[in-house]
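== Fold encoding ==
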Amino acid sequence: MAKYFDVHPDNPQPRTIGAVADSIRNGALVAYPTDSCYALGTRLGSRDGISRIRTIRDLDDRHHFTLMCANFAQLGQLVHIDNDVFRAVKASTPGAYTFILPATKEVPRQLLHPKKKTVGVRIPDHVVTQALLAELGEPLLSSTLLLPDEAEPLTQGWEIKERLDHQVDAVLDSGDCGTEPTTVVDFSSGEPEIVRRGAGDTTRFE
C-alpha cells in the first residue's frame, strides 16, 4: 500500500520532502508532481524501480527515460552537450522541456536508448520538484505518469493513490499540475528535432 504525502504547492513542508527523499534513497518508486504533469520517479541506479516503471507504463527498451535534474551542474554530468546546444537548452530551462542528448558514462546502460546511447534530461520549473531534488542531492530517474491506452496522464494525487496503490510505494501530492507532458526535443544529432509537442513552446526549435 502506497504512503500518501500531502504538501503545500508553494511552501512544501521540509519534513515531508525529507521523508519522500529518504524513501527514494531506499529504492522506493514514487509518483510526484512536476511543471507539466505527474511523473513516476526512482533512484538513478534502481533496477527494480526501472522494471516497475516499464511494467506500469508497458514500455519497451526503446523508451527514453528522463533524468530530472536540479540544475545544469547535474545535467552536465549526465550528457554530452556542445556550446550551441548548451545555449539552446540553457535558454529553455527551467521549464517543461525534455532534451534527448548523448549520455555520459555516468548513466547506467539500462537507461540508454539501445542504438543511439541517448537519454532524456530536464530541469523542472516546479517548487515541489525542486525541493525534492535539492533534498535528494542527485538526479531522479523519471517517466511521465501516463498509463497504457489512456490519452492523458493522471493528474490528481488521490486518484493516483487509488489506482496505483499496490504498484508504487509513495504518492507526493501538491494538487493539480496539469495534464500536458513536456515538449521533447532531440539534440542527439546536433540539430533540434521536435519529437513531441507538449507544454513547452516549440518556437525556438523550429
Observations:
- The first strand starts at residue 3 and ends at 6.
- Helices lie at 14-25, 47-57, 72-78, 83-91, 127-136, 157-163.
- The mean pLDDT is 93.
- The beta strands are 3-6, 30-32, 39-43, 66-68, 97-102, 118-122, 140-144, 170-173, 183-186, 193-196.
